[in-house]
Amino acid sequence: MSFLTDEDYVLAADRRPLSALYARNAKAVIERGFQVIRSQNWIILVSGFFEPVFYLLSMGIGLGNLVGAVEGPGGATISYAAYIAPALLAVSAMNGAIYDSTWNIFFKMHFGKLYQSMLYTSLGPFDIALGEIFMALFRGFLYALGFTGVMAVMGLITTPWALLLVPTSVMVAFGFASFGMAITSYMKTFQQMDIITFVMLPMFLFSATFYPLSVYPLPIQWMVEVFPLWHGVELMREISIGSFSSATWVHLAYYVVMILVGMLFTTRRLRALFLR
Amino acid sequence: MAGDAELRRTVISARDLVKTYGDFNAVDGISFDVPAGESFGLLGPNGAGKSTTMRMIGGVTQRTSGRLDIMGLDPESQGPEVRAHLGVVPQQDNLDEELRVRDNLIVYGRYFGLPRAYLMRRADELLAFAQLEDKAKARVDSLSGGMKRRLTIARSLINDPKILLLDEPTTGLDPQARHVLWDRLFRLKEQGVTLVLTTHYMDEAEQLCDRLIVVDKGKIMAEGSPAALIREHSSREVLEVRFGTDRNAAVAPRLDGAGDRIEVLPDRVLVYTEDGEGSLEQIRARGLHPITSLVRRASLEDVFLRLTGRSLVE
Amino acid sequence: MSEDRHTELLVAHAPEVSAAKARRWGAFYFTEHMLRGMRAYLVTIVVTSVGNPLLYLFSMGVGLASIVDRNPSAHFGGVGYLAYAAPALLVSSAVMTCANEMMFPVMDGFKWRRIYYGPHVTPLVPGQLAAGHVMAVGVRLVVQCTVFFLIVLAFGAAMSPAAWLLIPAGVLSGLAVGTPLMAYAASIQKENFQFSMIQRFIIMPLFLFSGTFYPLETMPSAMQWIGWISPLWHGNELGRFVAIGLTEPAWLVAVHVLYLAALCVFGILWARRNYTKRMGA
Predict the structure, then answer these.
(1) Which of B119, B246, B299, C35 lies at 20 to 30 Å from B31 by C-alpha?
(2) Residue B303 within any structural domain of the chain
């Protein structure tokens, strides 16, 4: 390196909008993600696939023997396993996305100190957010592919529409991930992070995964219908047997709006999240 | 070199920097200028606000108020542009534990958008610089503390920075490793790299810094070259005498006049004087016989004690 | 400083007394240490202790019951699905809590915050630290199971007068899974996702395939073996026996209790051995 003169010390500003937050280099964060996957044990990546499969085997087969056939979307009679499988896929998309956008971010922020090192480079916080969301969606995509394959093997797939389960699952994950990061920006301690679990668990248990919403009294039904998971569950269920209605559009629109609002929200909270 | 420094362009200009966390002022109105090629130090105890100031320079924390100009840009609105020219060694190593040693350098370089082929070669150069060639494929958590520190420093150079920020660079290193690091920093300085470092080690500040500010509780207490600060706030020599924990305070009044100034610490009494041996003779002549005595050159520690009434390393 | 000499010095007992007391009560001293540590998570503990039973009993009990009970072929020894599922939900929650308390916190004690190494240089010995940790988790389980039991009562899902025995049954089942995990956690030097793997490949399958939501016989026979070796299945059956008077032959009840107790004893002994080995005493 030659001697630095005064002229070397003059920088030009970047006038793009958002240039303080975004350096158009999310690619480098994604590359890091794949490098980590390559250098760690493959079982760690693969293990995430099993939880929904175990649920499907246990509840679909075991409980299915007790429950028998149930009424699916559009009044079709389907097996209990076929009823819960798409719902479990939606739940799994939610859980994976929320874990990756909350706990994972929180941990890398406060304990792994990974983002501190990234932020001292020419990356902006938006590059990191995009890169991390991409990695979360990539994992979600792999698991959705695997789960749909298991459904096929178990004979739960009867229509080509079911192929859409995979991209829809990624969309559901995107919806949750885009909000997760913004919410993490308000969290300061581990104890506060537990709040996320307190919200997620009831959403999982009450969102018509294992039985129809109609078992609840009306006011509770309305409450459940406000929450995103229910829309994901219903949408996936409709896709799995290719039975659509006007409600399909409502579910889809719910997620499009959720993703847009979530990304906007996260972008607004980037400084609070990363530049404390 | 020192003479030229005054003529050179200012590359870091801070005015009235304030950073508040809740009702705590971590940085409370700090102003300073750093010319190109200078080695500039922030000296102060833990919690003085040094690291927060560094973080503001890098634009990775939002300042509460004040102005900051780094090479013509505000790091808060032009973070990526500014940081493209910064190298940063944080106080605590924050290596990527999920990646191997060499991959740490390459992946970090990618964050600057540097081409992969270039980084392969640059990573090997830096591994040699950090004497970690045989650890290239090792996992980060298998490295010793000193090795991790060297890797962090190597990593900070991946983008050939113009300004290098070093936050307590040698804390936790053994004496030999410290001297190796100082040597590397001198070489960078010879290439015209601007160094900004925080430290609470006096010898480090005296060795490395052309100029420094003494910071305490978020405020600047003094500014100048190490030699000038010692001249201004201390005497040439210091005589340290111990009479025993219970007696130091009681004896202290009887030492009046033995030096320019007396400072009573719980475990010892400091006598600031131009002639340490002479002062000791005087004390003995008064019939006082300290259990131990030591004459040393005055240091920045004494400057700090004078300015704040507290020791730097507690 | 010099004034101190005139005031009376604060005097405790002699070091020899400390040593003797520590030998006798050391494990309890460490239990106290752990319980004080749990105060940081008190809110979480309280909210989960009350919230989880409510949520699970409503959704997996009342909600599922509405579609299971509708099927005439599904009957559970004469009680409804809610009453059938409730004892198993209590036992499962104890097992999950205990498993969590015995993995990361143990590693934390040895490696991250190293809380075991403070007491290690006092008169306490490593085996007492293991015992103290177990007792502290046991206290948490007693509290959690008691709260759960009261909520089960409120749901009207506990039929038998002996139903309160669900509390010890839950604690026993939790420790039967937790103590061997604790011993294992004490033996690993580096956390390479082993705990997530245990969570995903042991705890989760145990929860799902141990007859928690339906009788084991409902599953294909090729999968029923999971239940037989699963401490959770033995705990679930024991829980149902005491809570709803599920008809079980006496020898099978004895097997449940003995199997769970044996796992606890094995786990504690193994853990003491690993703690002692690891801390080099």
Answers:
(1) B299
(2) no
